[in-house]
Amino acid sequence: MAKDAAGGAPTLEMVARRAGVSRATVSRVVNGSPKVSPEVVTAVNAAVAELRYVPNRAARSLARRSSSAIALIVPEDVTVFFGDPYFAAVVQGIMDRIDDSEYVLNLLVASADPQRKTRGYLESGVVDGAIVISHHAGDELFERAAVPLVYGGRPPAGIDAYVVDVDNVEAAVRGTERLIEIGRRRIGTISGPLDMPAGIDRLEGFRRAVEAAGLPADLVETGDFTAEGATAATRRLLDRVGDGRDGRPLGVDALFVASDLMATGALAVLAERGLTAPADVAIVGFDDSPAALRAGVPLTTVAQPSAEQGRLMAELLIRLIEGDETVPRQTILPTRLVLRDSA
User: Fold this and answer.
1) Under a CB-based contact definition with an 8 Å cutoff, are residues 81 and 57 in contact?
2) For 257-312, how does the pLDDT look when each residue is reduced to its tens digit (9 = 90+)?
3) How far apart are the first and last CA of the chain?
4) How far apart are CA 287 and CA 298, in angstroms?
5) Which of 74, 128, 137, 148 is most exposed by smallest CB count within 10 Å?
6) Is residue 331 within a helix (H) or strand (E), and if so which, with residue range?
């Protein structure tokens, strides 16, 4: 076996120098990443053979006190996590990044006692860092975590954190403005939960848009980012303002709904009451998830780059774990309006 200058076993750095590539590229080849060209794979494998380099992940992890694992922490019910396509897109983005690294992903979905269990998990040494998404008020325990954290979305008030997010207020303004532009004047909203920053900010954006147009801002019911929660919220709204039956006029002619999944629930309520979109009630959703195309009417929606958010959160977390002091505290990704049949 070849030795380094100090007489030790060949290292990843020695392989990188022999192959004429970066250390990260050698790591990708050693870990079987498909995102390396055949020519580079050949060069790295030749260097590995010449130096007789043998990866020793366990020894490296002990030397740098590393687990080579990162956590995705989701303080949600399991049914919410597996039922919302937003989470699938974020996980895909995370995996796209860590496939090019030595890290593996551990998933922690909140239990009945998330505070105690999550704190113990983060302090146990089983992960080097964590990504936190879909957090609620009361999740402040993460601020005192013993490992680097990156938040997907604005963290609870008072927590100074590394954040990858979209401008939910401005995105909701744009989505609501679409309804105003097509001539709707009795615009309601089904908001997300108001113990979550995304729910709060998207409601704020809706209110800014309708108030700027001189329209009422009180046609609001709160959902929970599930189709079932939106079904209940839409029924409450129509019961309150009128659905065109029982001698009362239809009290809304448009809805801004804070997620595509919730918009499918709103559409189901319209159908059960003999209403259609967009003829009776135009609808704009949020996410541009697969749910937008599975709805009874293809949804006009605000697209957010969920997979890119996941990839970037993983990238920033890995940089933090590896000691990079140039990681930005806040990264805001762009959104865009996607026009379809519902508005």
Assistant:
1) no
2) 999 999 999 999 999 999 999 999 999 999 999 999 988 899 999 999 999 999 99
3) 68
4) 13
5) 137
6) strand 330-333
pLDDT at 61: 46
Phi and psi (nearest 5°) for 191? Answer: -85, 165
Tokens representing 139 are: 């999740």
Q: Given the DSSP bridges, would you call strands 300-303 and 187-191 parallel, antiparallel or unpaired?
A: unpaired
**Residue 115 banded pLDDT, cuts 50, 70, 90:** low
What contacts 178, CB < 8 A, 6 or more positions away?
Answer: 284, 300, 337, 339, 343
Q: Measured over all CA atoms, what is the biggest interatomic distance in the chain, rounded to whole angstroms?
A: 91
| Residue at token pair 């929970």 | 224
Structure tokens at 144: 């005192």
Query: What span, in angstroms and rounded, lies between the C-alpha atoms of 340 and 260?
Result: 13
**Helices (DSSP H) in 4-113: which residue ranges?**
12-19, 23-30, 38-51, 57-63, 78-83, 85-98
User: Which of 260, 255, 254, 253 is closest to 285 using CA atoms?
Assistant: 260
Instruction: Taking the CA atoms of 42, 43, 47 and 48 in sequence, report the sign of the dihedral they define.
Output: negative
pLDDT at 72 over 80: yes
234-259 confidence digits (pLDDT tens) = 999 999 999 888 878 999 999 999 99
**How many CA within 13 A on the CB side of residue 20?**
5
